Predict the 3D structure of the following.
Amino acid sequence: MDVLLLKNIKNLGDIGSKVSVKSGYARNYLLPNNLAVLSSKENLAIVEEKKQLLLKQEEELRNQAINIKEKFNDYILTFDVHVQEDDDKLFGSINLQNIVEKLNNDGYELEKKQVNLPSGPIKIFADDYIATVSLYADVSVTIPIKLTKIAKPSPENTSENPSSESPE
């Protein structure tokens, strides 16, 4: 099925391009989400008229994504974690939802579908974890993840020992 794209779509084409896609992809995704229209002489004329406006809108969205990317400079995600003593396994794990919540709490408004953990959920204490955030079709940022161990209270500190105000 031939369609005319109304937006830049990664790995498919740019605005105004005529592309051939499977009919299910066009019917179920491209057409309902206003990403494309069916290829016809009338639609081709309409897309050509709107092409400059659409390109301008796409450029504005891309510039906004680049501005957000600049805010991520020198940003490091940090998590305080409990670690088993004998091996470096975490109690629990850090998953995609934890990453998104932390980013939202730090002032970045992102959706879960924009964030990716290439190594999967974090279950072992290490320093080489990253998260990738897709801000726009061709604008993404890589964020390092730093884990810090939470010190467990030692057993002698948990017992009730007399304080410095002992009676004399």
About this structure: Residues 15 and 52 are 9 Å apart (CA to CA). The chain has two domains: 2-70, 77-153. The longest strand covers residues 139-149.
